[in-house]
Design goal:
The complex is a heterodimer of chains A (458) and B (296).
Chain A lengths: L8 H42 L2 E7 L4 H17 L3 E7 L5 H11 L5 E5 L1 H9 L7 H7 L6 H5 L11 E4 L6 E4 H6 L8 H11 L5 E4 L7 H12 L16 H13 L12 H9 L3 E5 L3 H9 L7 E4 L17 E4 L7 H10 L3 H9 L10 H4 L2 H4 L2 H5 L1 H13 L16 H6 L2 H10 L5 H17 L1
Helix pairs in contact in A: 5-13, 9-10, 9-20, 10-21, 20-21
Chain B lengths: L4 H32 L2 E3 L6 E3 L3 H8 L3 H31 L5 H8 L1 H4 L2 H12 L5 H8 L15 H26 L4 H9 L4 H29 L3 H6 L11 H9 L5 H34 L1
Antiparallel strand pairs in B: 1-2
Helix pairs in contact in B: 2-13, 3-8, 3-10, 8-10, 10-13, 12-13
Chain lengths: 458, 296
């Protein structure tokens, strides 16, 4: 007996209503399916008709003028390649490694990644996550790249797993000539001189050095630079871990001594805050790329005549002159569905007029890695670069002999775990142990040794 | 009573989408997380190997887990208490008649409507040591001699995070409590007033019992949300200084992405689920007992 027959008249009425609901649900479902199906087919049809592919491009360079330059580059590329559209996405340097991890884990990688530090690119290659781009390098002109820039992403078989799109010398030491002169001091060459400058210029709401002491990002680089300038290595040329050495302890000791002369909030500083501290005029010294020039001229032009650049100071006894290149990379992640188109876009970045356009969007921040561009008047005649010839000369010189975190010296093998080391923030955490938790540099160096060794073995 | 085959099929057909959604959105992710927690997994390559309970053992043996759990519980409790106290207080104020009350009711929702990223950027600017408004005022008034390090020193960082979280989320309490206040019958207050009840007595004996059900839901929801809060803390302090504001969600994130240890991160996720269950089950029992008592 059916359910319906057991019911009384009123129930029969509601049963009819219920059937009506069911029919309505069925009808709506069918209608919804038809609409969705039609829309999907329509979409596919349109996509096929247009044949356009969309390339997802990630970049860490998103300052306003750089965004404008990207618009010009993308417009030019899309005009030459009407079947390819570019979707540009901005990621911060602090988060790029984590976001790439999420992208690979989710199987939703971008087609091109630009301006990621060399620190991370090697680690991606080691995991087999990069498409070869040898043909891109050859198309641009293998011999036009400076030797160091060309070789940093050369794989053991002689091909290339990334291209260098520019290089920034993040270790460049910036100082205020006027503030030092007021104290009767000259620009520091050694750590002890820098400490003296920092002590003398910390007064009246101004600080001696705008340095990062947070547990992430830029702090890792500061510690790495200071270790090398102290005469040590975190990872030696033979890839053994040498974090528990007197030079590393001296480096940590120096950074601890400098902390009182950094702004009070430096324990939370990374890239932007350190740069902001110097550009705002609140600090007498700092380290950063040539982006300082653009930011000072735009945001605080009154101090522009007083700023100057030098190589990073180093430890007087046992230290060594130090400079480092970012060798900002451009690569195509494994899993990209548009590898051929991605290669087209990657090579397009080096078209001389557009390459210069992009470099000029943050003059001095990124230095050219193509010799033809580095020597060209089109590049060199930018007014800001012309006004700061001495600072630019310092950075160009540093770029010519400086190493890179992934390959600190010519003797070093590629440290393919550098991305894991920097991504894990172990150096930044080491410094925080000292300045926040009160650990001694010696105990911290021992801890750092263990942490880095674990990563290298993993 | 038996359903006809046709009706049974229709019933199953109607339930099926819910079952699919339940499986896809709840059962599968939960089971995946539990299974992942027994493996060592590289986040980027997803290469994995079975390690049994090693991930859990390493987490419990490590130096970061217990402090992170303690910070997590302290953060959740502190923000929850402040949100409820501030939220109920402001809801009571907004329930009274005053000029421009509608505007005030709209404005009080502002922090809740603001995206977390924007809210954090605003607060980071306010907290800034060199040109932040708070330090500017404190220095100007001569209350401090040097800028206060709000986010880079403990316990300032923890207090700052709790205060910003309270500011961001208390409007949720206001909305819910205000809605309930408007449905409390006036005759309860009129009768109590005629009996000579004081204002405190009106609140304690009428308003608060009437708010009990809505506060139970608010506390439950906010406790869950505050316990797993990530973006606010990550964007404000990144878990620092040191590990001073590192909670379990931040630890999970650090393991999953910067450190590429998805298996261990999943283990943290499973532990968080268990901790929340440990907190919520007694709460439900308490709320049920309380509800039965007040119903007598």
């Amino acid at each position: 007996m059916s359910n319906q027959k057991e019911r009384g008249p009123s129930a029969a009425g509601s049963s009819r209503l219920a059937l009506g609901r069911r029919q309505t649900v069925k009808g709506l479902t069918a209608l919804g399916g038809a609409v969705l199906g039609g829309a999907a087919l329509g979409g596919i049809g349109r996509a096929r008709a247009q044949g356009a592919k969309t390339l997802r491009v990630w970049t860490t360079q998103g300052a306003p003028l750089q965004r404008e330059a990207y618009k010009v580059i993308i417009a030019a590329f899309e005009a030459e390649n009407p079947n390819i559209k570019i979707a540009l996405e901005f990621v911060s340097d602090n988060d790029a490694w984590s976001k790439l991890g999420a992208a690979f884990a989710g199987g939703d990688v971008p087609d091109v990644v630009q301006h990621l530090s060399s620190v991370f690119t090697g680690s991606l290659f080691q995991r087999g996550l990069l498409e070869p781009v040898t043909d891109v390098v050859k198309k641009v002109g293998e011999n036009d790249f400076s030797d160091a820039a060309r070789d940093v992403y050369r794989d053991p078989k002689g091909g290339y797993f990334a291209t260098v799109i520019g290089t920034a010398v993040l270790s460049t030491f910036w100082y205020r000539k006027d503030l030092l002169a007021a104290e009767g001091l000259t620009a520091p060459k050694y750590f002890d001189e820098w400490l003296k400058v920092a002590k003398a210029t910390t007064k009246g709401g101004r600080y001696g050095a705008s340095l990062p002491y947070s547990g992430r990002g830029f702090t890792n680089f500061l510690v790495d630079y200071t270790i090398q300038a102290s005469g040590g290595w975190l990872v030696a040329p033979d890839l053994s871990v040498t974090a528990n050495s007197p030079a590393v302890i001296a480096a940590l000791e120096f950074l601890k001594e400098m902390r009182p002369y950094a702004p009070p909030g430096a324990n939370n500083y990374s890239f932007d805050e350190s740069l902001g501290g110097f550009v705002s005029g609140a600090a007498a010294t700092s380290i950063y790329t040539g982006r300082v020039l653009t930011n000072v001229s735009e945001k605080n032009p009154t101090i522009e005549p007083h700023i100057e650049a030098l190589p990073y100071p180093y430890r007087r006894d046992g230290g060594r002159p130090f400079a480092t290149n970012s060798f900002a990379s451009q690569f195509i992640p494994k899993g990209s569905k548009n590898v051929d188109e991605a290669k087209l876009f990657a090579a397009f970045q080096y078209r001389p007029d557009l390459y210069v356009k992009f470099l000029h969007s943050a003059p001095g921040h990124l230095l050219p890695v193509l010799t033809s561009i580095g020597n060209s008047p089109d590049y060199l005649n930018h007014p800001l670069l012309a006004r700061h010839k001495a600072a630019v000369a310092v950075m160009v010189d540093e770029a010519s002999w400086g190493g890179a975190p992934v390959k600190p010296s010519k003797e070093h093998a590629l440290i393919l775990k550098s991305g894991d080391i920097f991504g894990a923030n172990v150096m930044a955490n080491a410094l925080q142990r000292i300045v926040v938790d009160g650990a001694t540099p010696a105990a911290t160096a021992a801890w750092l040794q263990d942490e880095v060794a674990k990563i290298m073995k993993s | 009573m038996r359903l006809s085959t046709k009706n049974s099929a229709l019933g199953i057909g109607l339930i099926f989408p819910v079952l699919v959604l339940f499986f896809v959105l709840l059962a599968y992710p939960l089971m995946s997380a539990i299974l992942l927690s027994f493996n060592r997994v590289d986040t980027m390559t997803l290469s994995s190997s079975y390690v049994g309970l090693d991930n859990y053992w390493e987490i419990f043996r490590g130096s970061e887990f217990l402090p992170a759990l303690a910070t997590n519980v302290a953060y959740a409790l502190a923000t929850l208490v402040l949100q409820v106290v501030v939220g109920v207080g402001i809801a009571l104020l907004l329930h009274r008649e005053f000029y421009l009350r509608s505007l005030a009711r709209g404005l009080v929702l502002f922090p809740y409507m603001l995206s977390t990223v924007v809210a954090v950027l605003v607060w980071r600017w306010l907290f800034n040591d060199l040109y932040g408004f708070l330090n500017f005022v404190l220095l100007g008034l001569g209350i401090v001699d040097a800028p206060v390090d709000w986010l880079g020193r403990m316990p300032n960082a923890f207090v700052s995070v709790v205060l910003v979280s309270t500011w961001k989320f208390f409007p949720f309490v206001v909305i819910a409590v205000l809605a309930r206040l408007q449905s409390i019958p006036d005759y309860l207050y009129e009768a109590a007033t005629m009996d000579g009840a004081s204002r405190w007595s009106l609140f304690w004996d009428i308003t608060l019992p009437q708010l009990r059900s809505v506060l139970s839901v608010i506390i439950l929801l906010r406790a869950i949300w505050d316990f797993k809060e990530f973006d606010m803390i990550y964007l404000l302090t990144g878990g620092g200084p040191g590990h001073g504001t590192q909670t379990l969600p931040l630890m999970l994130y650090e393991l999953a992405f910067p450190l590429s240890q998805m298996g261990k991160a999943s283990a943290i996720g499973v532990i968080m689920l268990l901790v929340m269950l440990l907190m919520i089950v007694p709460y439900f029992r308490f709320a049920k007992v309380g509800g039965e008592e007040s119903g007598r």
